[in-house]
């Protein structure tokens, strides 16, 4: 068993990119940890070593100290303010009883990283980069950061202004900084990076800014870029070569990333990579989805617009594509497909299948053979009016022609609305119940095309999106879905979109949280509410769980409303303008009545038999 | 030149102090303007833009001085500047632009076709069949899902394969990022561009090759799309006093304002044109 000694009293100061140094107390002996592979760290249930917990993106923890029988006694153990009242979407990482967490772009120290004792909450060090303030001006939909990555004693941070930073996990000392993109071109980074085999992978955001999406692999030791795969453009730049074998014929051919667009439009065509990455060590393939095509005005870009709204499987070492599958060719509705790809081994049709499950923003739950890209099933899991179904033979989704956007006409009853049936908020899987736990929104929209808006030099006319609650009148849901039976097992209707992630544990408890300030635990088998805690601000974060060196199991989540549906409560958006925040305002006009912005990390435990606060003797931070 | 926004928070404090300082006549000693530091012909940090000159004209009438808060005119511009109290007026917004209170319009312009004079292209309508074969440049925006009216009109007619999009945001390190579209016409990368008139007209003044500017005159053919817009100044909603004063100045100084617009090459559209 690994033991972290209580604090050594070595004080050092973290040297940072621009000399902003905060405290760095306590270099603690963790050398043994640094030597462990990420896969090994992930197999130790005490840790939460990557945002989705494991390479398969299951967000399942084998810890069972907190269970359906005792979760009702869960209590706040400690808390910590991140000091930036914008959307708190990050997953804390926990490696051997040390917690690492990153803040959004806001406050005096945007994208600040904190290392905390995971048992006592004591601050060990913090690192404050100096991202360019102009980054805030090009970020779509709130200035969130979805988490850090860890590998071999290093913490990897993406800043909103497109830098990747490596920090020494023990001291917070900056090791290298690499510029990956350019805010002047509309690029930002909000996603959590993933560490894989000596590299760190990250992609860009900015699909609404005329950018070209990419996934980039950076060498962990040197900070040098190892490869970059663009989502659009010629094969050479999309890293599509001889190994590329898509399952469906319409995705075979030369340079489809360029030829499925009008002249040169692929250069500004979106396909950004701002969601989740997963990895299969057996096949050495990395899986991820790409964003919607740009611009939203779809009549300007006839063609399939490859490789936007697409799931890619790529070789982790070279970045070369193995297969791809485009969920929504020629997307009309901002249906990015950046959502997570969960890698599971399931019994389907009497045989064991290695599958990838993709909860589509388009409203379909895809079960895909992860070796070949063949779609095994695709079933609607929320109200869908804009598509008629997915043809499994051709792999093509069938748009509802009657609802295509037409200028001078308000198209009504568009479901799912532009954020999709589910957006970035990650689902969880329990191998015990064989159920997926899917936090998602339940929204429809009216879509019209004559609103005048303005940037000096360019009065323009465009789409006006007005969102509202879907059938039943609720705007969110936690859904328990059986991917083999292809059916809902149970669901919980929520008043507001469920924009937090889900967490499943071996204690048969599922955690999720709501924008009206409730952090909840429900029974994994029945959905029965077992416990809830009223937080300081609405939740859009990712719950995680870990075991401290005191032996106690903890559950942690960031509170602080925001994200695309939440900017109305944290960024002074006028709630009367229904089409503000790219149309989300109309669906969220009442949110400021429930919560304002906040920035608190909350950590819970049962608190019995484990004197959490006293487990390590507190020491004053070094001056 | 890289534009720094790091002084903005400091500016806010200064601005609040200045707002409290009024000249004896009841008019403010300082006309607080929010503007883009890199967006000619409208404004730039060196004060060379049309809207800089207009601000000086207005301030002179009020017996005030001009102070600026600089912010790129992108998503959130009004929210982060005028609405945040960092200034009291934005010199150019469309008339009746909802987030602000707008003054009476001080000019009207339209979208135009821009081409090299030596190509002798006289296309004036978005319905001209030659648009199907010419290589056309447009601004593509994308933010908020919106695009310029000519882009919609071309798309509606299926004219897309020969249309090249240039992002309006461009690369902000370069001078006047939206101007890349006009430069593409100058260089011959595209044969024709559909652009907002003031941008094209200003470029034509200094272009190394003669440019032809033809207003897009399609009336109501593409309704509800419109290709001409009234432009006003914008103040915070409820700031009736300032709006009234600006209305008076616009009325009294219209000959000077017209001369200013002409000196910037701004193509003016007739009132009521669509």
The total of beta strands of chain A comes to 40
Shape of chain A: globular
Structural class of chain B: alpha/beta
Helix content of chain A: under 10%
Count of strand segments of chain B: 13
In whole angstroms, the N-to-C terminal distance of chain A is: 33 Å
The number of helical segments of chain B is 8
Main sheet: strands, sense, barrel of chain B: 8 strands, mixed
DSSP helix fraction of chain B:
25-40%
Structure overview:
The complex is a heterodimer of chains A (623) and B (274). Chain A has a 6-stranded antiparallel sheet with strand order 1-2-8-7-6-5, with no helix packed on it. Chain A has a 5-stranded mixed sheet with strand order 3-34-35-36-37, with no helix packed on it. Chain A has a 4-stranded antiparallel sheet with strand order 4-40-39-38, with no helix packed on it. With 623 residues, chain A is mainly beta. Chain A is globular. The two termini of chain A are 33 Å apart. The longest helix of chain A is centred in the first third of the chain and has 6 residues, at 38-43. Chain A contains 7 helices and 40 strands. Chain B is an alpha/beta fold. Chain B has 8 helices and 13 strands. In chain B, the strands form 3 sheets. In chain B, strands 5, 6, 7, 8, 10, 11, 12 and 13 form an 8-stranded mixed sheet that branches. Strand 31 of chain A pairs antiparallel with strand 9 of chain B, so a sheet runs across the interface.
Short synopsis of the structure:
The complex is a heterodimer of chains A (623) and B (274). Chain A is mainly beta. Chain A is 5% helix and 35% strand.
Using brief descriptors, characterize the structure shown.
heterodimer, A: 623 residues, mainly beta, 6-stranded antiparallel sheet, 5-stranded mixed sheet, disordered N terminus, disordered C terminus, B: 274 residues, alpha/beta, 8-stranded mixed sheet, two-stranded parallel sheet, 28% helix
């Amino acid at each position: 068993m690994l033991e972290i000694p209580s604090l050594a009293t070595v004080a050092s100061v973290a040297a940072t990119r621009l000399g902003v140094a905060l405290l760095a107390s306590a270099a603690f002996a963790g050398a043994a940890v640094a030597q462990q592979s990420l896969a090994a760290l992930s197999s130790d249930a005490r840790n939460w070593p990557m945002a989705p917990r494991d390479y398969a993106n299951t967000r399942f923890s084998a810890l069972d100290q907190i269970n359906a029988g005792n979760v009702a006694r869960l209590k706040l153990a400690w808390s910590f303010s991140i000091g930036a009242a914008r959307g708190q979407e990050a997953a804390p990482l926990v490696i051997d009883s040390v917690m690492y967490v990153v803040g959004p772009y806001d406050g005096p120290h945007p994208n600040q990283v904190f290392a905390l004792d995971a048992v006592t909450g004591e601050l060990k060090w913090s690192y404050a980069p100096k991202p360019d303030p102009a980054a805030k001006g090009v970020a779509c939909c709130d200035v969130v950061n979805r988490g850090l990555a860890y590998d071999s004693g290093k913490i990897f941070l993406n800043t909103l202004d497109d830098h990747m930073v490596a920090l020494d996990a023990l001291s917070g000392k900056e090791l290298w900084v690499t510029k990956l993109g350019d805010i002047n071109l509309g690029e930002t980074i909000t996603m959590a990076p993933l560490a894989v085999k000596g590299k760190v992978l990250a992609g860009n955001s900015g699909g609404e800014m005329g950018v070209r999406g990419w996934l980039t692999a950076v060498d962990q030791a040197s900070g040098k870029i190892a490869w970059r795969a663009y989502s659009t453009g010629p094969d050479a730049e999309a890293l599509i070569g001889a190994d590329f074998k898509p399952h469906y014929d319409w995705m075979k051919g030369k340079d489809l990333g360029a030829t499925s667009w009008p002249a040169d439009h692929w250069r500004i065509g979106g396909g950004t990579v701002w969601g989740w990455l997963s990895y299969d060590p057996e096949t050495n393939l990395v899986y991820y989805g790409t964003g919607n095509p740009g611009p939203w005005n779809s009549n300007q870009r006839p063609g399939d617009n490859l490789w936007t709204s697409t799931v890619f499987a790529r070789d982790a070492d070279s970045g070369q594509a193995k297969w791809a599958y485009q969920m929504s060719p020629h997307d009309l509705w901002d249906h990015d497909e950046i959502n997570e790809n969960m890698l599971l081994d399931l019994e389907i049709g009497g045989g064991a299948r290695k599958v990838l499950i993709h909860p589509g923003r388009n409203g379909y739950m895809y079960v895909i053979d992860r070796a070949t890209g063949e779609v095994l099933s695709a079933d609607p899991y929320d109200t869908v009016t804009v598509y008629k179904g997915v043809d499994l033979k051709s792999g093509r989704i069938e748009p509802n022609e009657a609802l295509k956007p037409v200028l001078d006409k308000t198209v009504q009853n568009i479901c799912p609305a532009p954020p999709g049936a589910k957006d970035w908020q990650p689902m969880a899987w329990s191998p015990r119940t064989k159920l997926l736990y899917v936090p998602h929104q339940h929204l429809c929209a009216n879509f019209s095309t004559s609103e005048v808006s303005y940037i000096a030099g360019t009065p323009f006319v465009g789409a006006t999106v007005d969102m509202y609650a879907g059938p039943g009148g609720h705007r969110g849901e936690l859904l328990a879905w059986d991917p083999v039976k292809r059916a809902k097992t149970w669901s919980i209707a929520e008043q507001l979109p469920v924009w937090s992630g889900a967490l499943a544990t071996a204690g048969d408890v599922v955690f999720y949280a709501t924008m009206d300030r409730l952090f909840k635990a429900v029974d994994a088998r029945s959905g029965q509410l077992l416990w809830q805690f009223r937080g300081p601000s609405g939740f859009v974060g990712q719950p995680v769980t870990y075991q401290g060196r005191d032996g106690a199991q903890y559950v942690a989540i960031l509170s602080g409303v925001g994200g695309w549906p939440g900017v109305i409560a944290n960024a002074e958006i006028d709630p009367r303008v229904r089409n503000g925040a790219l149309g989300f305002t109309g669906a969220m006009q009442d949110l400021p009545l429930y919560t304002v912005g906040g920035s608190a990390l909350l950590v819970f435990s049962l608190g019995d038999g484990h004197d959490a606060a006293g487990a390590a003797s507190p020491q004053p931070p070094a001056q | 030149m890289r534009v720094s926004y790091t002084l903005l928070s400091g500016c806010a404090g200064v601005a609040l102090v200045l707002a409290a300082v009024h000249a004896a006549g009841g008019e403010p000693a300082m006309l607080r303007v929010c503007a883009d530091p890199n967006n000619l012909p409208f404004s730039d940090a060196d004060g060379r833009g049309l809207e800089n000159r207009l601000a000086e004209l207005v301030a002179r009438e009020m017996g005030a001085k001009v102070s600026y808060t600089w912010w790129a005119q992108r998503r959130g511009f009004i929210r982060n500047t005028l609405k945040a109290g960092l200034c009291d007026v934005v010199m150019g917004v469309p008339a009746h632009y909802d987030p602000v209170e707008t003054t009476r319009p001080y000019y009207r312009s339209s979208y135009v076709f821009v081409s090299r004079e030596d190509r002798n292209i006289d296309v004036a309508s978005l319905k001209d069949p030659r648009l199907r074969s010419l290589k056309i440049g447009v601004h593509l925006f994308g933010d908020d899902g919106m695009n310029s009216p000519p882009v919609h009109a071309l798309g509606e007619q299926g004219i897309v394969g020969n249309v090249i999009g240039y992002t309006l945001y461009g690369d902000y390190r370069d001078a006047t990022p939206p101007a890349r579209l006009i430069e593409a016409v100058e260089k011959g990368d595209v044969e024709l561009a559909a652009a907002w008139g003031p941008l094209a007209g200003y470029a034509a003044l200094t272009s190394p090759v003669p440019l032809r500017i033809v207003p897009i005159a399609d009336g109501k053919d593409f309704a509800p799309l419109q290709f001409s817009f009234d432009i006003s100044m914008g103040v915070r909603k409820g700031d009736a006093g300032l709006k009234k004063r600006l209305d008076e100045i616009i009325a009294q100084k219209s000959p000077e304002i017209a001369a200013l617009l002409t000196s910037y090459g701004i193509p003016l559209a007739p009132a009521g044109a669509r």
